[in-house]
Amino acid sequence: MYERSVYSSLWPILTTEVKFPNATHTHQDLLAYGKTLAGREVVLHGYLGRRRDAGKGFSFCDLVSNDLSHSIQLTAKAGKDESTLSALTLLRSLNRHTPVAVRGVIAEASLKEKFGDLQNVPNIELKLSEVYRLNEFPADIIMQSETVFSPEQRHLQIRNTKQIRTALEVRSHAAHVCRKLLAEEEGFTEVETPLLFKSTPEGAREFLVPTRAAGLAYALPQSPQQYKQILMSSGIPRYFQFAKCFRDEDLRADRQPEFTQIDLEMAFATGADVMNVIERLIRQLWSTCLDQGSVQLPFQRMTYDEAMSTYGSDKPDLRFESRMRRIEYMLPVDLVSKIGPLSDPIVEVMKMSISDKPKETSAFVASFMDSPEAKPFIENPDGQPGIFIFDPRRPLQGLQPFGFEAAEQLEELLELDAGDLVVIQARKNAPFAGGSTPIGNLRLALHKAAVASKLLPTPTTFEFLWITDFPLFSPTVDTEPGQGGTAGIASTHHPFTAPKSAEDVDMLLTDPLQVKAEHYDLVVNGVELGGGSRRIHHAKVQEYILRDILKIGDERMNDFAHLLEVLRAGCPPHAGIALGFDRLVAVMLGRESVRDVIAFPKSGRGEDLLVKSPSRMTKKQLETYHLQLSV
Protein backbone atom coordinates (compact mmCIF):
# COMPACT_ATOMS: atom_id res chain seq x y z
CA MET A 1 0.00 0.00 0.00
CA TYR A 2 1.18 3.54 -0.76
CA GLU A 3 1.62 5.91 2.12
CA ARG A 4 -1.57 7.99 2.40
CA SER A 5 0.42 11.28 2.44
CA VAL A 6 2.17 10.36 -0.80
CA TYR A 7 -1.09 9.29 -2.41
CA SER A 8 -2.73 12.54 -1.32
CA SER A 9 0.00 14.59 -2.97
CA LEU A 10 -0.43 12.59 -6.19
CA TRP A 11 -4.22 12.93 -6.24
CA PRO A 12 -4.33 16.30 -8.11
CA ILE A 13 -1.98 14.91 -10.76
CA LEU A 14 -4.02 11.75 -11.14
CA THR A 15 -7.22 13.75 -11.68
CA THR A 16 -7.20 17.43 -12.62
CA GLU A 17 -3.80 17.53 -14.32
CA VAL A 18 -4.41 14.39 -16.35
CA LYS A 19 -7.98 15.08 -17.50
CA PHE A 20 -7.79 18.24 -19.56
CA PRO A 21 -9.90 19.42 -22.50
CA ASN A 22 -8.85 18.99 -26.11
CA ALA A 23 -7.83 22.14 -27.92
CA THR A 24 -10.54 23.53 -30.19
CA HIS A 25 -8.14 25.83 -32.02
CA THR A 26 -4.43 26.50 -32.43
CA HIS A 27 -2.59 29.82 -32.34
CA GLN A 28 -2.22 29.51 -36.12
CA ASP A 29 -6.02 29.21 -36.42
CA LEU A 30 -6.44 32.42 -34.45
CA LEU A 31 -3.82 34.13 -36.59
CA ALA A 32 -5.72 33.10 -39.73
CA TYR A 33 -9.29 33.88 -38.59
CA GLY A 34 -8.62 36.77 -36.22
CA LYS A 35 -11.63 38.93 -35.35
CA THR A 36 -14.10 36.56 -37.01
CA LEU A 37 -13.83 34.41 -33.87
CA ALA A 38 -14.78 37.28 -31.52
CA GLY A 39 -17.34 36.17 -28.96
CA ARG A 40 -16.63 32.46 -29.40
CA GLU A 41 -15.43 30.19 -26.62
CA VAL A 42 -12.21 28.33 -27.43
CA VAL A 43 -9.76 26.00 -25.72
CA LEU A 44 -6.04 26.48 -26.35
CA HIS A 45 -2.93 24.54 -25.32
CA GLY A 46 0.51 26.04 -24.72
CA TYR A 47 3.00 27.42 -22.22
CA LEU A 48 2.57 30.41 -19.93
CA GLY A 49 4.67 33.39 -20.92
CA ARG A 50 5.29 36.73 -19.21
CA ARG A 51 2.57 37.89 -16.80
CA ARG A 52 1.65 41.46 -15.86
CA ASP A 53 -0.55 42.00 -12.78
CA ALA A 54 -2.75 45.11 -12.71
CA GLY A 55 -3.91 45.41 -9.12
CA LYS A 56 -5.52 42.70 -7.04
CA GLY A 57 -8.13 41.58 -9.47
CA PHE A 58 -6.71 41.78 -13.00
CA SER A 59 -3.79 40.14 -14.86
CA PHE A 60 -2.44 39.90 -18.37
CA CYS A 61 -0.48 36.85 -19.43
CA ASP A 62 0.94 35.53 -22.71
CA LEU A 63 0.08 32.03 -23.80
CA VAL A 64 2.87 30.69 -26.03
CA SER A 65 1.92 28.10 -28.65
CA ASN A 66 3.03 24.52 -28.24
CA ASP A 67 5.61 24.98 -31.00
CA LEU A 68 6.96 28.10 -29.20
CA SER A 69 6.43 30.31 -32.26
CA HIS A 70 3.29 32.37 -31.49
CA SER A 71 1.70 34.07 -28.53
CA ILE A 72 -1.77 35.32 -27.63
CA GLN A 73 -2.67 37.57 -24.71
CA LEU A 74 -4.80 36.16 -21.92
CA THR A 75 -6.78 38.46 -19.64
CA ALA A 76 -7.89 37.19 -16.25
CA LYS A 77 -10.27 39.21 -14.11
CA ALA A 78 -11.71 38.44 -10.68
CA GLY A 79 -15.49 38.65 -10.98
CA LYS A 80 -18.54 37.42 -9.12
CA ASP A 81 -18.26 34.12 -10.94
CA GLU A 82 -16.25 31.71 -8.76
CA SER A 83 -14.61 30.10 -11.81
CA THR A 84 -13.05 33.37 -13.01
CA LEU A 85 -11.68 34.06 -9.53
CA SER A 86 -10.28 30.53 -9.42
CA ALA A 87 -8.71 30.98 -12.87
CA LEU A 88 -7.02 34.24 -11.78
CA THR A 89 -5.77 32.70 -8.55
CA LEU A 90 -4.36 29.64 -10.32
CA LEU A 91 -2.83 31.73 -13.09
CA ARG A 92 -0.95 33.86 -10.56
CA SER A 93 0.33 30.77 -8.74
CA LEU A 94 1.95 29.26 -11.83
CA ASN A 95 5.50 29.91 -12.99
CA ARG A 96 6.40 31.03 -16.47
CA HIS A 97 6.93 28.12 -18.94
CA THR A 98 4.26 25.98 -17.25
CA PRO A 99 2.26 23.85 -19.76
CA VAL A 100 -1.46 24.59 -19.53
CA ALA A 101 -4.83 24.25 -21.24
CA VAL A 102 -7.01 27.37 -21.07
CA ARG A 103 -10.64 28.05 -21.83
CA GLY A 104 -12.05 31.47 -22.60
CA VAL A 105 -13.86 33.80 -24.97
CA ILE A 106 -12.16 35.61 -27.87
CA ALA A 107 -12.41 39.41 -27.69
CA GLU A 108 -11.08 42.20 -29.89
CA ALA A 109 -7.94 43.99 -28.67
CA SER A 110 -5.17 46.23 -29.98
CA LEU A 111 -1.81 44.44 -29.64
CA LYS A 112 1.67 44.59 -31.17
CA GLU A 113 2.43 41.88 -33.71
CA LYS A 114 5.84 40.86 -32.33
CA PHE A 115 7.50 40.32 -28.98
CA GLY A 116 11.09 39.05 -29.16
CA ASP A 117 11.17 35.86 -31.22
CA LEU A 118 7.43 35.36 -30.78
CA GLN A 119 4.81 36.34 -33.33
CA ASN A 120 1.83 37.78 -31.46
CA VAL A 121 -1.69 37.01 -32.61
CA PRO A 122 -2.81 40.62 -33.25
CA ASN A 123 -6.12 42.38 -32.66
CA ILE A 124 -7.63 39.72 -30.37
CA GLU A 125 -7.16 38.38 -26.85
CA LEU A 126 -8.62 35.58 -24.78
CA LYS A 127 -10.79 36.42 -21.75
CA LEU A 128 -9.88 33.61 -19.41
CA SER A 129 -12.53 31.49 -17.68
CA GLU A 130 -10.61 28.30 -16.81
CA VAL A 131 -6.98 27.22 -16.45
CA TYR A 132 -5.83 23.59 -16.40
CA ARG A 133 -2.35 23.09 -15.00
CA LEU A 134 -0.73 20.22 -16.91
CA ASN A 135 2.55 20.11 -15.01
CA GLU A 136 4.78 22.40 -12.98
CA PHE A 137 7.79 24.41 -14.07
CA PRO A 138 10.05 24.63 -11.00
CA ALA A 139 11.18 27.99 -9.68
CA ASP A 140 14.79 26.79 -9.38
CA ILE A 141 15.18 26.59 -13.19
CA ILE A 142 16.00 30.06 -14.49
CA MET A 143 15.19 30.31 -18.20
CA GLN A 144 15.64 33.74 -19.75
CA SER A 145 16.09 34.40 -23.46
CA GLU A 146 19.85 34.77 -23.00
CA THR A 147 20.31 31.73 -20.74
CA VAL A 148 22.86 29.18 -21.97
CA PHE A 149 22.31 25.73 -20.50
CA SER A 150 24.94 23.05 -20.02
CA PRO A 151 24.94 19.90 -22.19
CA GLU A 152 23.42 18.11 -19.19
CA GLN A 153 20.30 20.25 -19.78
CA ARG A 154 20.07 19.90 -23.54
CA HIS A 155 16.26 19.65 -23.31
CA LEU A 156 16.11 23.14 -21.83
CA GLN A 157 18.57 24.51 -24.39
CA ILE A 158 16.39 23.22 -27.25
CA ARG A 159 13.28 24.68 -25.65
CA ASN A 160 14.99 28.03 -25.06
CA THR A 161 16.81 28.42 -28.39
CA LYS A 162 14.85 29.12 -31.55
CA GLN A 163 17.93 28.49 -33.72
CA ILE A 164 18.11 24.85 -32.61
CA ARG A 165 14.40 24.25 -33.14
CA THR A 166 14.60 25.90 -36.57
CA ALA A 167 17.54 23.68 -37.49
CA LEU A 168 15.57 20.57 -36.55
CA GLU A 169 12.60 21.79 -38.61
CA VAL A 170 14.84 22.44 -41.65
CA ARG A 171 16.43 19.03 -41.13
CA SER A 172 13.01 17.39 -41.17
CA HIS A 173 11.96 19.33 -44.27
CA ALA A 174 15.21 18.46 -46.07
CA ALA A 175 14.74 14.76 -45.33
CA HIS A 176 11.22 14.92 -46.77
CA VAL A 177 12.47 16.67 -49.93
CA CYS A 178 15.22 14.07 -50.43
CA ARG A 179 12.86 11.13 -49.96
CA LYS A 180 10.30 12.61 -52.34
CA LEU A 181 12.78 13.34 -55.11
CA LEU A 182 14.69 10.06 -54.87
CA ALA A 183 11.64 7.79 -54.52
CA GLU A 184 9.08 9.56 -56.71
CA GLU A 185 11.16 11.28 -59.37
CA GLU A 186 14.40 9.29 -59.62
CA GLY A 187 13.02 5.77 -59.10
CA PHE A 188 14.99 4.76 -55.99
CA THR A 189 13.76 2.16 -53.50
CA GLU A 190 14.30 2.95 -49.82
CA VAL A 191 15.79 -0.09 -48.06
CA GLU A 192 16.82 -0.32 -44.40
CA THR A 193 20.04 -2.28 -43.96
CA PRO A 194 21.07 -3.93 -40.65
CA LEU A 195 22.80 -2.02 -37.87
CA LEU A 196 24.23 -5.21 -36.33
CA PHE A 197 26.96 -6.02 -38.86
CA LYS A 198 30.37 -7.70 -38.62
CA SER A 199 33.88 -6.35 -38.23
CA THR A 200 35.58 -5.72 -41.58
CA PRO A 201 38.72 -3.64 -42.25
CA GLU A 202 37.26 -0.80 -44.32
CA GLY A 203 39.44 2.03 -43.01
CA ALA A 204 37.99 3.40 -39.76
CA ARG A 205 37.75 2.07 -36.22
CA GLU A 206 34.53 0.30 -35.34
CA PHE A 207 32.24 0.04 -32.35
CA LEU A 208 31.80 -3.57 -31.25
CA VAL A 209 28.62 -4.97 -29.70
CA PRO A 210 29.38 -8.06 -27.57
CA THR A 211 26.94 -10.95 -27.48
CA ARG A 212 26.22 -13.59 -24.85
CA ALA A 213 27.97 -16.15 -27.05
CA ALA A 214 31.54 -16.19 -25.76
CA GLY A 215 33.97 -14.44 -28.09
CA LEU A 216 31.35 -13.30 -30.60
CA ALA A 217 30.49 -9.66 -31.30
CA TYR A 218 28.67 -7.58 -33.85
CA ALA A 219 30.16 -4.40 -35.25
CA LEU A 220 28.09 -1.28 -35.86
CA PRO A 221 28.42 -0.31 -39.54
CA GLN A 222 30.86 2.41 -40.60
CA SER A 223 28.53 2.71 -43.59
CA PRO A 224 26.04 0.43 -45.41
CA GLN A 225 28.68 0.01 -48.16
CA GLN A 226 28.74 -3.77 -48.36
CA TYR A 227 24.99 -4.20 -47.91
CA LYS A 228 24.20 -1.77 -50.69
CA GLN A 229 26.62 -3.57 -53.01
CA ILE A 230 24.84 -6.79 -52.09
CA LEU A 231 21.55 -5.11 -53.06
CA MET A 232 23.02 -4.26 -56.48
CA SER A 233 23.67 -7.97 -57.01
CA SER A 234 20.18 -8.73 -55.72
CA GLY A 235 18.35 -7.06 -58.60
CA ILE A 236 17.51 -3.78 -56.83
CA PRO A 237 18.31 -1.20 -59.55
CA ARG A 238 18.39 1.90 -57.36
CA TYR A 239 18.67 1.95 -53.56
CA PHE A 240 18.74 4.72 -50.96
CA GLN A 241 18.30 5.20 -47.24
CA PHE A 242 18.92 7.66 -44.44
CA ALA A 243 21.58 5.51 -42.83
CA LYS A 244 22.88 5.64 -39.28
CA CYS A 245 26.65 5.10 -39.30
CA PHE A 246 29.17 4.66 -36.51
CA ARG A 247 32.91 5.35 -36.41
CA ASP A 248 35.16 5.32 -33.38
CA GLU A 249 37.45 8.13 -34.51
CA ASP A 250 38.88 11.40 -33.26
CA LEU A 251 36.11 13.98 -32.97
CA ARG A 252 36.03 17.44 -34.53
CA ALA A 253 33.36 20.05 -35.13
CA ASP A 254 32.14 18.18 -38.21
CA ARG A 255 32.35 14.67 -36.73
CA GLN A 256 30.24 12.60 -34.37
CA PRO A 257 30.68 8.96 -33.34
CA GLU A 258 27.21 8.31 -34.77
CA PHE A 259 25.95 10.25 -37.74
CA THR A 260 23.39 10.15 -40.53
CA GLN A 261 24.11 9.97 -44.22
CA ILE A 262 22.00 9.93 -47.37
CA ASP A 263 23.25 6.70 -48.87
CA LEU A 264 22.47 5.60 -52.42
CA GLU A 265 23.64 3.15 -55.04
CA MET A 266 22.78 2.64 -58.73
CA ALA A 267 23.18 -0.52 -60.83
CA PHE A 268 24.43 -0.34 -64.43
CA ALA A 269 25.76 3.13 -63.63
CA THR A 270 28.95 5.17 -63.74
CA GLY A 271 30.13 7.94 -61.48
CA ALA A 272 28.74 10.51 -63.91
CA ASP A 273 25.25 9.03 -63.49
CA VAL A 274 25.49 9.36 -59.72
CA MET A 275 26.78 12.93 -59.90
CA ASN A 276 23.88 13.94 -62.13
CA VAL A 277 21.33 12.60 -59.61
CA ILE A 278 23.05 14.37 -56.71
CA GLU A 279 23.16 17.67 -58.60
CA ARG A 280 19.40 17.51 -59.13
CA LEU A 281 18.94 16.63 -55.45
CA ILE A 282 21.04 19.59 -54.29
CA ARG A 283 19.20 21.97 -56.61
CA GLN A 284 15.87 20.77 -55.20
CA LEU A 285 17.05 21.12 -51.59
CA TRP A 286 18.40 24.63 -52.05
CA SER A 287 15.37 25.90 -53.94
CA THR A 288 12.82 24.26 -51.61
CA CYS A 289 14.39 24.57 -48.17
CA LEU A 290 16.41 27.77 -48.58
CA ASP A 291 14.50 29.64 -51.28
CA GLN A 292 17.86 30.25 -52.98
CA GLY A 293 16.52 30.23 -56.49
CA SER A 294 18.04 27.99 -59.13
CA VAL A 295 21.38 26.32 -58.37
CA GLN A 296 23.37 26.32 -61.60
CA LEU A 297 24.02 22.89 -63.11
CA PRO A 298 26.27 21.15 -63.85
CA PHE A 299 28.67 21.76 -60.96
CA GLN A 300 32.28 22.58 -61.73
CA ARG A 301 34.65 19.61 -61.79
CA MET A 302 38.28 19.67 -60.68
CA THR A 303 40.83 16.89 -60.28
CA TYR A 304 42.44 16.16 -56.93
CA ASP A 305 45.88 17.22 -58.22
CA GLU A 306 44.47 20.46 -59.62
CA ALA A 307 42.70 21.29 -56.35
CA MET A 308 45.78 20.56 -54.25
CA SER A 309 48.15 22.52 -56.50
CA THR A 310 45.81 25.50 -57.00
CA TYR A 311 44.13 25.81 -53.61
CA GLY A 312 46.19 23.58 -51.32
CA SER A 313 43.11 21.56 -50.39
CA ASP A 314 41.04 18.66 -51.70
CA LYS A 315 37.94 20.58 -50.61
CA PRO A 316 38.70 24.10 -51.83
CA ASP A 317 36.57 27.10 -50.94
CA LEU A 318 35.99 28.87 -54.25
CA ARG A 319 34.22 31.90 -52.75
CA PHE A 320 37.50 33.79 -52.71
CA GLU A 321 40.57 33.73 -54.93
CA SER A 322 44.16 33.38 -53.60
CA ARG A 323 45.34 30.67 -55.96
CA MET A 324 48.76 29.05 -55.53
CA ARG A 325 51.54 28.99 -58.10
CA ARG A 326 54.95 27.31 -58.05
CA ILE A 327 57.80 29.83 -58.11
CA GLU A 328 60.94 27.99 -56.95
CA TYR A 329 62.33 28.37 -60.47
CA MET A 330 62.40 32.17 -60.20
CA LEU A 331 63.74 32.56 -56.65
CA PRO A 332 67.35 33.34 -55.72
CA VAL A 333 69.17 30.31 -54.33
CA ASP A 334 69.94 32.06 -51.04
CA LEU A 335 66.24 32.87 -50.50
CA VAL A 336 65.24 29.22 -51.06
CA SER A 337 67.78 28.14 -48.46
CA LYS A 338 66.37 30.64 -45.94
CA ILE A 339 62.79 29.46 -46.37
CA GLY A 340 63.34 26.22 -44.48
CA PRO A 341 65.43 23.08 -44.00
CA LEU A 342 64.25 21.27 -47.15
CA SER A 343 66.64 20.67 -50.00
CA ASP A 344 65.20 21.08 -53.48
CA PRO A 345 61.73 22.03 -52.17
CA ILE A 346 58.62 23.05 -54.05
CA VAL A 347 57.89 26.70 -53.23
CA GLU A 348 54.42 28.08 -53.74
CA VAL A 349 53.10 31.62 -53.63
CA MET A 350 49.66 33.18 -53.24
CA LYS A 351 48.31 36.67 -52.84
CA MET A 352 45.42 37.84 -50.71
CA SER A 353 43.91 41.29 -51.13
CA ILE A 354 43.22 42.30 -47.53
CA SER A 355 43.25 46.09 -47.82
CA ASP A 356 44.47 48.74 -50.28
CA LYS A 357 46.34 50.35 -47.37
CA PRO A 358 49.71 48.64 -46.73
CA LYS A 359 49.76 49.77 -43.08
CA GLU A 360 46.36 48.21 -42.45
CA THR A 361 47.47 44.93 -44.04
CA SER A 362 50.68 45.04 -41.97
CA ALA A 363 48.72 45.50 -38.74
CA PHE A 364 46.46 42.60 -39.67
CA VAL A 365 49.43 40.31 -40.32
CA ALA A 366 51.06 41.25 -37.01
CA SER A 367 47.84 40.53 -35.15
CA PHE A 368 47.35 37.18 -36.90
CA MET A 369 50.92 36.00 -36.32
CA ASP A 370 50.55 36.77 -32.59
CA SER A 371 47.34 34.72 -32.38
CA PRO A 372 47.00 31.02 -31.46
CA GLU A 373 45.76 30.33 -35.01
CA ALA A 374 49.26 31.06 -36.35
CA LYS A 375 51.03 28.53 -34.12
CA PRO A 376 50.88 25.50 -36.48
CA PHE A 377 52.28 27.58 -39.34
CA ILE A 378 55.10 29.03 -37.24
CA GLU A 379 56.00 25.53 -35.98
CA ASN A 380 55.87 23.88 -39.41
CA PRO A 381 58.99 21.63 -39.53
CA ASP A 382 59.36 22.30 -43.26
CA GLY A 383 59.74 26.03 -42.57
CA GLN A 384 57.65 29.04 -41.68
CA PRO A 385 55.75 30.93 -44.35
CA GLY A 386 57.32 34.02 -45.84
CA ILE A 387 54.88 36.93 -45.64
CA PHE A 388 55.35 40.19 -47.55
CA ILE A 389 53.18 43.27 -48.14
CA PHE A 390 53.19 44.93 -51.53
CA ASP A 391 53.88 48.63 -50.92
CA PRO A 392 54.74 50.87 -53.92
CA ARG A 393 56.36 53.40 -51.55
CA ARG A 394 59.06 50.97 -50.43
CA PRO A 395 62.14 49.72 -52.29
CA LEU A 396 61.16 46.99 -54.77
CA GLN A 397 57.57 47.52 -53.54
CA GLY A 398 58.33 45.63 -50.32
CA LEU A 399 59.62 42.55 -52.14
CA GLN A 400 63.36 43.19 -51.56
CA PRO A 401 64.23 39.60 -50.48
CA PHE A 402 63.17 38.34 -53.92
CA GLY A 403 65.68 40.48 -55.77
CA PHE A 404 64.94 42.79 -58.67
CA GLU A 405 64.16 40.19 -61.33
CA ALA A 406 61.96 37.89 -59.20
CA ALA A 407 60.14 40.85 -57.62
CA GLU A 408 59.28 42.18 -61.06
CA GLN A 409 58.08 38.74 -62.19
CA LEU A 410 55.93 38.32 -59.08
CA GLU A 411 54.32 41.71 -59.50
CA GLU A 412 53.31 40.80 -63.04
CA LEU A 413 52.38 37.16 -62.28
CA LEU A 414 50.13 38.01 -59.30
CA GLU A 415 48.88 41.37 -60.63
CA LEU A 416 49.79 42.99 -57.33
CA ASP A 417 48.23 46.19 -56.00
CA ALA A 418 49.01 48.30 -52.95
CA GLY A 419 48.28 46.49 -49.70
CA ASP A 420 48.21 43.00 -51.19
CA LEU A 421 49.53 40.23 -49.00
CA VAL A 422 52.11 37.92 -50.62
CA VAL A 423 52.75 34.54 -48.97
CA ILE A 424 55.34 31.93 -49.93
CA GLN A 425 55.68 28.45 -48.43
CA ALA A 426 57.99 25.51 -49.06
CA ARG A 427 56.94 21.85 -49.08
CA LYS A 428 58.57 18.54 -49.92
CA ASN A 429 59.10 17.82 -53.60
CA ALA A 430 56.78 14.81 -53.65
CA PRO A 431 53.38 13.81 -55.04
CA PHE A 432 50.36 15.14 -53.18
CA ALA A 433 49.00 13.07 -50.30
CA GLY A 434 46.32 13.80 -47.74
CA GLY A 435 43.74 16.53 -47.81
CA SER A 436 45.69 19.80 -47.64
CA THR A 437 49.05 21.55 -47.77
CA PRO A 438 50.40 24.08 -45.23
CA ILE A 439 49.87 27.02 -47.57
CA GLY A 440 46.34 25.78 -48.29
CA ASN A 441 45.56 25.73 -44.57
CA LEU A 442 47.13 29.19 -44.17
CA ARG A 443 44.95 30.50 -47.02
CA LEU A 444 41.82 29.52 -45.08
CA ALA A 445 43.10 30.76 -41.73
CA LEU A 446 44.07 34.18 -43.10
CA HIS A 447 40.75 34.62 -44.87
CA LYS A 448 38.79 33.63 -41.76
CA ALA A 449 40.79 36.10 -39.65
CA ALA A 450 40.31 38.88 -42.22
CA VAL A 451 36.55 38.30 -42.21
CA ALA A 452 36.52 38.32 -38.39
CA SER A 453 38.45 41.62 -38.46
CA LYS A 454 35.88 43.02 -40.94
CA LEU A 455 38.60 43.65 -43.51
CA LEU A 456 36.85 41.27 -45.91
CA PRO A 457 33.11 40.69 -46.29
CA THR A 458 31.49 37.49 -45.07
CA PRO A 459 30.91 35.20 -48.06
CA THR A 460 27.22 34.51 -48.65
CA THR A 461 27.15 32.39 -51.80
CA PHE A 462 27.31 28.62 -52.26
CA GLU A 463 30.03 27.39 -54.62
CA PHE A 464 29.63 23.71 -55.48
CA LEU A 465 32.17 21.53 -57.26
CA TRP A 466 33.16 17.92 -57.73
CA ILE A 467 36.68 16.79 -56.90
CA THR A 468 37.65 13.78 -59.02
CA ASP A 469 40.59 11.53 -59.85
CA PHE A 470 41.75 10.85 -56.31
CA PRO A 471 44.65 8.43 -55.84
CA LEU A 472 43.26 4.92 -55.38
CA PHE A 473 45.89 4.17 -52.71
CA SER A 474 47.85 6.25 -50.21
CA PRO A 475 50.85 5.49 -48.00
CA THR A 476 49.87 3.91 -44.68
CA VAL A 477 49.51 6.40 -41.79
CA ASP A 478 50.32 5.07 -38.31
CA THR A 479 47.43 6.94 -36.71
CA GLU A 480 44.83 5.41 -39.04
CA PRO A 481 43.76 1.76 -39.01
CA GLY A 482 43.52 1.47 -42.80
CA GLN A 483 42.66 -2.02 -44.03
CA GLY A 484 45.28 -3.82 -41.98
CA GLY A 485 47.38 -5.00 -44.94
CA THR A 486 51.15 -5.33 -44.97
CA ALA A 487 51.89 -3.56 -48.27
CA GLY A 488 52.59 -0.19 -46.65
CA ILE A 489 49.67 1.34 -48.55
CA ALA A 490 45.94 1.63 -47.86
CA SER A 491 42.88 2.42 -49.93
CA THR A 492 42.45 6.18 -49.90
CA HIS A 493 38.72 5.84 -49.29
CA HIS A 494 37.69 2.18 -49.07
CA PRO A 495 38.92 -1.00 -50.78
CA PHE A 496 35.83 -1.38 -52.99
CA THR A 497 36.59 1.63 -55.24
CA ALA A 498 37.39 0.85 -58.87
CA PRO A 499 40.39 2.17 -60.84
CA LYS A 500 39.41 4.99 -63.19
CA SER A 501 40.69 3.73 -66.54
CA ALA A 502 42.41 0.87 -68.35
CA GLU A 503 45.72 2.68 -67.96
CA ASP A 504 45.17 2.77 -64.19
CA VAL A 505 44.46 -0.97 -64.18
CA ASP A 506 47.81 -1.50 -65.92
CA MET A 507 49.61 0.40 -63.12
CA LEU A 508 48.11 -1.67 -60.29
CA LEU A 509 51.05 -4.05 -60.26
CA THR A 510 53.86 -1.69 -61.26
CA ASP A 511 53.05 1.55 -59.42
CA PRO A 512 49.85 1.40 -57.32
CA LEU A 513 50.39 4.84 -55.74
CA GLN A 514 50.00 6.41 -59.19
CA VAL A 515 46.65 4.71 -59.88
CA LYS A 516 43.68 7.07 -60.07
CA ALA A 517 40.28 6.09 -58.68
CA GLU A 518 36.86 6.72 -60.11
CA HIS A 519 36.05 8.50 -56.88
CA TYR A 520 34.30 11.85 -56.56
CA ASP A 521 33.73 14.19 -53.61
CA LEU A 522 31.02 16.85 -53.52
CA VAL A 523 32.42 20.06 -52.03
CA VAL A 524 30.75 23.37 -51.20
CA ASN A 525 32.42 26.39 -49.59
CA GLY A 526 35.39 24.37 -48.38
CA VAL A 527 33.25 21.59 -46.85
CA GLU A 528 33.11 18.04 -48.13
CA LEU A 529 29.43 17.10 -48.24
CA GLY A 530 30.09 13.53 -49.27
CA GLY A 531 31.94 11.14 -51.48
CA GLY A 532 31.26 8.23 -53.76
CA SER A 533 32.76 6.01 -56.40
CA ARG A 534 32.21 3.41 -59.04
CA ARG A 535 32.71 0.08 -57.30
CA ILE A 536 34.69 -2.99 -58.22
CA HIS A 537 32.03 -5.42 -59.42
CA HIS A 538 34.19 -8.42 -60.44
CA ALA A 539 35.02 -10.84 -57.61
CA LYS A 540 38.49 -11.69 -59.00
CA VAL A 541 39.47 -8.01 -59.28
CA GLN A 542 38.21 -7.32 -55.76
CA GLU A 543 40.15 -10.29 -54.38
CA TYR A 544 43.28 -9.16 -56.25
CA ILE A 545 43.07 -5.67 -54.73
CA LEU A 546 42.61 -7.05 -51.21
CA ARG A 547 45.08 -9.91 -51.30
CA ASP A 548 47.80 -8.88 -53.76
CA ILE A 549 47.83 -5.09 -53.63
CA LEU A 550 46.91 -4.33 -50.02
CA LYS A 551 48.30 -7.71 -48.87
CA ILE A 552 45.52 -8.43 -46.39
CA GLY A 553 46.10 -11.69 -44.55
CA ASP A 554 43.98 -14.82 -44.87
CA GLU A 555 42.18 -14.26 -41.57
CA ARG A 556 40.96 -10.82 -42.54
CA MET A 557 40.28 -11.95 -46.12
CA ASN A 558 37.70 -14.32 -44.67
CA ASP A 559 35.78 -11.25 -43.47
CA PHE A 560 35.16 -10.38 -47.13
CA ALA A 561 34.20 -13.88 -48.28
CA HIS A 562 30.50 -12.99 -48.36
CA LEU A 563 31.12 -9.96 -50.59
CA LEU A 564 33.33 -11.90 -53.02
CA GLU A 565 30.62 -14.56 -53.32
CA VAL A 566 28.02 -11.86 -54.02
CA LEU A 567 30.16 -10.25 -56.73
CA ARG A 568 30.80 -13.68 -58.26
CA ALA A 569 27.06 -14.11 -58.86
CA GLY A 570 26.93 -11.83 -61.92
CA CYS A 571 26.92 -8.51 -60.07
CA PRO A 572 26.34 -5.65 -62.55
CA PRO A 573 28.52 -2.52 -62.69
CA HIS A 574 27.38 -0.08 -60.03
CA ALA A 575 28.25 3.24 -58.44
CA GLY A 576 27.02 5.26 -55.50
CA ILE A 577 27.63 7.99 -52.98
CA ALA A 578 27.00 8.95 -49.37
CA LEU A 579 26.21 12.53 -48.38
CA GLY A 580 26.70 13.48 -44.74
CA PHE A 581 23.19 14.61 -43.84
CA ASP A 582 24.20 16.34 -40.58
CA ARG A 583 26.92 18.25 -42.40
CA LEU A 584 24.59 19.06 -45.30
CA VAL A 585 22.03 20.70 -42.99
CA ALA A 586 24.80 22.57 -41.13
CA VAL A 587 26.09 24.02 -44.42
CA MET A 588 22.60 24.97 -45.55
CA LEU A 589 22.06 26.95 -42.34
CA GLY A 590 25.58 28.37 -42.11
CA ARG A 591 26.36 26.58 -38.82
CA GLU A 592 29.97 25.93 -37.82
CA SER A 593 29.34 22.54 -36.22
CA VAL A 594 27.11 19.57 -36.96
CA ARG A 595 26.24 19.61 -33.25
CA ASP A 596 24.12 22.68 -33.97
CA VAL A 597 21.77 20.67 -36.21
CA ILE A 598 21.54 17.44 -34.18
CA ALA A 599 18.93 17.16 -31.43
CA PHE A 600 21.13 15.25 -29.00
CA PRO A 601 24.77 15.48 -30.12
CA LYS A 602 27.74 13.86 -28.41
CA SER A 603 30.40 16.00 -26.75
CA GLY A 604 33.99 16.33 -27.94
CA ARG A 605 34.73 13.19 -25.92
CA GLY A 606 31.91 11.21 -27.49
CA GLU A 607 29.63 11.51 -24.46
CA ASP A 608 25.92 12.28 -24.18
CA LEU A 609 26.00 14.30 -20.99
CA LEU A 610 22.19 14.49 -20.73
CA VAL A 611 21.62 10.76 -20.40
CA LYS A 612 25.17 10.03 -19.15
CA SER A 613 26.35 7.69 -21.89
CA PRO A 614 28.51 5.74 -22.41
CA SER A 615 28.04 4.14 -18.99
CA ARG A 616 30.45 1.89 -17.14
CA MET A 617 29.69 -1.79 -17.47
CA THR A 618 28.68 -3.56 -14.29
CA LYS A 619 30.30 -6.74 -13.06
CA LYS A 620 27.17 -8.67 -14.01
CA GLN A 621 27.19 -7.25 -17.55
CA LEU A 622 30.85 -8.17 -17.97
CA GLU A 623 30.09 -11.72 -16.87
CA THR A 624 27.03 -11.95 -19.17
CA TYR A 625 29.09 -11.00 -22.21
CA HIS A 626 32.20 -12.97 -21.18
CA LEU A 627 34.31 -9.82 -20.84
CA GLN A 628 36.88 -8.66 -18.34
CA LEU A 629 38.65 -5.34 -17.90
CA SER A 630 42.39 -5.25 -18.51
CA VAL A 631 42.86 -2.27 -16.18
State the CATH superfamily name of the largest domain: Bira Bifunctional Protein, Domain 2
Query: Radius of gyration in whole Å, from Cα?
Result: 31 Å
**Total domain units:** 3
Number of helical elements: 19
| CATH topology (fold) name of the largest domain | BirA Bifunctional Protein, domain 2
**Proportion of residues in β-strands:** 15-25%
CATH architectural name of the largest domain = 2-Layer Sandwich
The class by helix and strand makeup works out as alpha+beta
Give the fraction of residues assigned to helices.
Answer: 25-40%
Count of DSSP strands: 23
Please state how the strands of the largest beta sheet are arranged side by side.
8-11-12-23-22-21-18-13
CATH class membership of the largest domain: Alpha Beta
Q: Cα distance, first to last residue?
A: 46 Å
Task: Indicate the low-confidence ranges by residue numbers.
Answer: none
Mean pLDDT score: 92
| Global shape | globular
Summarize the biggest pleated sheet. 8 strands, mixed
